[in-house]
Amino acid sequence: MKGRFGEFGGQYIPETLMPAIEELEKAFEKCRKDKKFNAEFQKLLSEYAGRPTPLTFAGNLSKRLGCKIYLKREDLAHTGAHKINNALGQALLAKKMGKTRIIAETGAGQHGTATAIAAAKLGMECEIYMGTVDIERQKPNVLRMRLAGARVNPVSSGSKTLKDAINECLRDWTASCENTHYLLGSVLGPAPYPEMVAHFQKMIGEEAKQQIKKAEGKLPKAIIACVGGGSNAIGIFKAFVPDKKVELVGVEAGGFGIEGGKHAARFADPKLGRSGVLHGTFTYVLQDKFGQIYNTHSVSAGLDYSAVGPEHSMLREMKRAQYTYATDKEALDAFKILSQEEGIIPALESSHAVAYALKYAKKCKKNDIIIINISGRGDKDLDTVIKEMGDSLD
Amino acid sequence: MIPLTRFEAQFKKLHSKKEGAFIPFVVLGDPNIETSFEIIKTLIDNGADALELGFAFSDPIADGPTIQEADQRALSHNINTDDAFELIQQIRSYNQKIPISLLIYYNLILQRGIGEFYSQAKQVGVDAVLAADCPVEEAEPLLKAAKENGIDQVFIVAPTTTKARLKKILAQASGYVYLVSLLGVTGARAALQTKTVKLIKFVKPNTNLPICVGFGISKPGHVKEVVGAGANGVIVGSAVIKLVKENLGDKEKMLAAVSEFASEMKAATK
Ligand SMILES: Cc1ncc(COP(=O)(O)O)c(C=O)c1O
């Protein structure tokens, strides 16, 4: 079925937006096959965004853990996270569609920044919606968006985080779809977004596959990535899905732990996490018995969201990928460990992947290879980390 | 002969009187269950020809601030699907004739179980269901359950709807066509968009279903304009809910304001 990943996915949006979605579907199908479009996109990626990003052997961490740890360095992409890949792809597409204005939601501010910067580069007007809780905890990114000429609209409804920012984007788009493109930042939302965002992120895994073959002459035992909506994870998983021996592990935000319900682990909480519809797609959603969406908690703004991309729901159902979680505390510890061992300060989002890798490594042998997707850099999180960890930084 | 549905009977009667339908929208349980019931009774007693009743949802993406706040007020009292159905049952006992349509977000139907939801809706006297975030492409399971339970499935036609989409929608719609009068979310607007009249003229020749215009209708003048352009009814939400919000501290005043507004709006349909 169109726009479905197994039973997941679909297009659950108001009629007013359906024509815009149909237009986007057509434009995307055309552009993804178009040589000129792809050449332009590649040029932006290599000359502007700094791709390919390196795959770094983490020597000190490897020694500490007793296996081989590699880091896919999305933190080194322009703007400091993988979000720039999708932002450039969609902004270019929007430009081809004749749209003059771009709107986007942001949680951690990385997608907002990437979108603001892509819009600046391509000469388009840009407005970003961001929850007031996130504005407070990701200040440096708010400033970067504004510097790039975007307007940042604070959202104070609901949980005042990513979910509510998406609500506002959908509302804006309902009124503005004639001249505006909604540049959704993860593999979420109605079709074609999940597939399109994955398409604009899949170079992460394609590069990593070549890089690891070159470095080690073989594929890794496991790939570990954090999962908010799930775009960096799909981005690195996709190229490895056919390689059945490579374990694909997604790490959700365990917040204060699963018990009390204060987390964003859609797959890990049997009480609150069930299939349902949020923001246009049928997927795993944290919700109460009646279907009211449950508010999430995570120390990392980018993972603090009630639903997960539908393709992840399918990969899990097929048992092709496994999903686990790391708590706030585990992520903060991992943040510190990677900074100290390797001199690489990961985003708090990515720190969740690092945290699980630290556990996973215990069952690895000396020559086993783990690739961790470092989806972004942690400069934006220093305020939060210092608040959470105080003087225990060293 | 198949007996007429409540909507059919009502539109037939209004047609013969050359009146449009005044259909107020409120959120079930706003600001609390008891007051909500009184607001709805007041609407029925003061000219409502049908009711559109909303199920409060945590993330109402098709709604502007006024209805979002109404949802939040209802949810702050933990109103849930069971409470909403119970309230509808009370309304149905109060008035057996008035057509009742639900406006709801898809996940609430899904989590109840689609078949179960429609069967419960039928039991409490619901006549039609509109799922705000379910376009015709995804509606098959709803249509099936609606048909099995003798409930109309209402669809939205928007200013952006293309001719091809209109055809697809009209092939499945029953009850009435919900014509969204503007590009945007719900909310009272000062003036109608020129799009509205154009849209009525675009849809009208393609269907025998009544056309009801909603989103932004907030004044008697708007009602006159759309009924004059050929619409069979108006759906008025945010303008009613505003009166609730403005009088949260004084129930008597709230009901008086709702009563006066309903009478004025109904008068404008004639
Ligand atoms: C650095 C970083 N990693 C991960 C995420 C989570 O998003 P996704 O799961 O789509 O990769 C974000 C989102 O803001 C982010 O900024």
Description:
The complex is a heterodimer of chains A (394) and B (270). Chain A is an alpha/beta fold and 394 residues long. Chain A folds into two domains: 147 residues, Rossmann fold (3-Layer(aba) Sandwich); 218 residues, Rossmann fold. Chain A has 15 helices and 14 strands. In chain A, β1 and β2 form a beta hairpin. In chain A, α2 packs across α4. The radius of gyration of chain A is 19 Å and the shape is globular. Chain B is of the alpha/beta class. Chain B has one domain: Aldolase class I (TIM Barrel, Alpha-Beta Barrel), CATH 3.20.20. Chain B is 49% helix and 14% strand. Chain B has twelve helices and nine strands. A nine-stranded parallel beta sheet of chain B has the order 5-4-3-2-1-9-8-7-6. In chain B, α6 packs parallel to α7. The model of chain B has no long low-confidence stretch (mean pLDDT 96). Bound molecules: pyridoxal-5'-phosphate (PLP). The site of pyridoxal-5'-phosphate has 22 residues of chain A, from α5, α11 and α14. Pyridoxal-5'-phosphate binds next to α5, α11 and α14 of chain A. Chain A: Belongs to the TrpB family. Chain A: Its cofactor is pyridoxal 5'-phosphate. Chain A: Pathway: Amino-acid biosynthesis; L-tryptophan biosynthesis; L-tryptophan from chorismate: step 5/5. Chain A: It comes from Candidatus Iainarchaeum sp. Chain A: It catalyses: (1S,2R)-1-C-(indol-3-yl)glycerol 3-phosphate + L-serine = D-glyceraldehyde 3-phosphate + L-tryptophan + H2O.
**Major sheet strand order of chain B:** 5-4-3-2-1-9-8-7-6
What fraction, in percent, of the residue positions of chain B are helical?
40-55%
In which range does the helix fraction of chain A lie? 40-55%
Instruction: List the helices and strands of chain A in order.
Output: EEHHEHEHEHEHHEHEHHEHEEEHEHHEH
> Ends of chain B: how far apart?
31 Å
Describe the sheet with the most strands of chain A: 6 strands, mixed
Please give the alpha-carbon distance between the first and last residues of chain A: 53 Å
How many individual domains of chain B? Answer: 1
By DSSP (H or I, 4+ residues per run), the number of helices of chain B equals 12
What is the CATH architecture descriptor of the largest domain in chain A?
3-Layer(aba) Sandwich
Radius of gyration of chain B, taken over Cα atoms and rounded to an integer in Å: 17 Å
Family (chain A): Belongs to the TrpB family.
Cofactor (chain A): pyridoxal 5'-phosphate
Catalytic activity (chain A): (1S,2R)-1-C-(indol-3-yl)glycerol 3-phosphate + L-serine = D-glyceraldehyde 3-phosphate + L-tryptophan + H2O
Pathway (chain A): Amino-acid biosynthesis; L-tryptophan biosynthesis; L-tryptophan from chorismate: step 5/5
